[in-house]
């Protein structure tokens, strides 16, 4: 084997090794995790900002699935992880809004009880 053939074979071997090293596996688990997070966020009945955030998560997930179809696995992985985080944010915002509404209802009930105590004289 001549020196130039050796260089060609070495270059081909390095290219093959680097192609294997840079190849990404399909992020099917991450896509499934994002789907589950979106479904969980939808069950919290988001309204207002939370609903907008959930819509954003759905859009990110749709983009990730489109990239999966194009075999752009690294970009799909990034978008599916972002969709999961965004869905978690939507669920947290929905829980926060629900908690605030519950606090407002209880505060109104407490105010009504205070008013009744002030109106009715003590015996």
Can you walk through the features of this model?
With 123 residues, the chain is mainly α. The chain has a domain at 24-98. Helix content is 84%, strand content 0%. The chain has helices at residues 3-22, 28-42, 49-69, 73-119. The protein is rod-shaped and about 110 Å long. The model has no long low-confidence stretch (mean pLDDT 87).
Provide the descriptors you would attach to this structure in a database record.
123 residues; mainly alpha; rod-shaped
Write the layout of secondary structure elements.
Elements: H1 3-22, H2 28-42, H3 49-69, H4 73-119
Helix pairs in contact: 2-3, 2-4, 3-4
Q: Let me know the largest β-sheet.
A: none
Number of helices: 4
Helix content: over 70%
Query: End-to-end span in angstroms?
Result: 112 Å
Compact description:
The protein has 123 residues and is mainly alpha-helical. It has helices at 3-22, 28-42, 49-69, 73-119. The mean pLDDT is 87.
């Amino acid at each position: 084997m001549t020196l130039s053939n050796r260089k060609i074979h070495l270059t081909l071997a390095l290219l093959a090794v680097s192609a294997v090293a840079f190849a990404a596996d399909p992020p099917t688990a991450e896509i499934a995790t994002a789907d589950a997070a979106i479904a969980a966020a939808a069950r919290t009945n988001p309204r207002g900002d939370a609903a907008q955030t959930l819509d954003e998560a759905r859009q990110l997930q749709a983009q990730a699935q489109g990239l999966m179809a194009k075999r752009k696995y690294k970009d799909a992985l990034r978008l599916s992880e972002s969709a999961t985080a965004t869905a978690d944010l939507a669920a947290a915002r929905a829980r926060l809004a629900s908690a605030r509404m519950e606090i407002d209802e209880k505060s109104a009930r407490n105010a009504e009880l205070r008013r009744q105590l002030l109106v009715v004289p003590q015996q």
